[in-house]
Amino acid sequence: MTAETDTPRTAGSCCSSTGSCHDGAADVQVGVTAVYEVKGMTCGHCEGAVSEEISGLEGVTSVTAEAGSGRVTVASATPLTDDAVRAAVDEAGYELVGRA
Predict the structure, then answer these.
(1) Distance (Å, rounded) from C-alpha 1 to C-alpha 49?
(2) 3-state DSSP call for residue 91?
(3) Residue 12: helix, strand or coil by DSSP?
(4) Given pLDDT bands bounded at 50, 70 and 90, which one contains residue 20?
(5) What pLDDT is recorded for position 81?
(6) 22-80 pLDDT, tens digit each
(7) Global confidence as pTM
(8) For the segment 71-95, what is each residue's pLDDT rounded down to a tens digit?
(9) b or e along 61-79 (b: 16 or more beta carbons within 10 Å of the residue's beta carbon)?
(10) Cα(35)–Cα(33) distance, integer angstroms
């Protein structure tokens, strides 16, 4: 019997008693999240266009655009300038109103 088979595990996990395949250090995300209001988004295509342009900005790790509310949530490694976000939104064909 190896140490691997002696280790108690949580049901459904193949890795550890905490259900993690690592020690958790990689789970820590450092960065900034900002919410913007974008005018003109009406559908999923709009959400995709805005998300694609903002995702192209350096340091952006995720973008969630919601046409219904006009809100775009952006996570990035470092703070983004409003000018950079505005340029990306303009490129997608929409208007950045400001931070929500």
Answers:
(1) 55
(2) helix
(3) coil
(4) very low
(5) 97
(6) 554 444 556 999 999 999 999 999 999 999 999 999 999 999 999 999 999 999 999 99
(7) 0.70
(8) 999 999 999 999 999 999 999 999 9
(9) eebebebeebebebebeee
(10) 7
Separation of alpha carbons 91 and 47, rounded Å: 13
The amino acid that residue 12 corresponds to is G
Per the DSSP assignment, residues forming a β-bridge with 73 are: 35, 64
Task: Give the DSSP letter of residue 26.
Answer: G
* Residue ranges in the chain assigned as alpha helix (H): 3-6, 44-55, 82-92
Identify whether the C-beta of residue 60 lies closer than 8 Å to the C-beta of residue 76: yes
Among 62, 43, 57, residue whose Cα is nearest residue 90: 57
Position 29 scores a pLDDT of: 54
Q: How far apart are the first and last CA of the chain?
A: 57
Tally Cβ neighbours within 10 Å of residue 1: 5
Residue with tokens 């929500």: 100
Distance in angstroms (rounded) separating the CA atoms of residues 86 and 95: 7
Residue type, 39: K
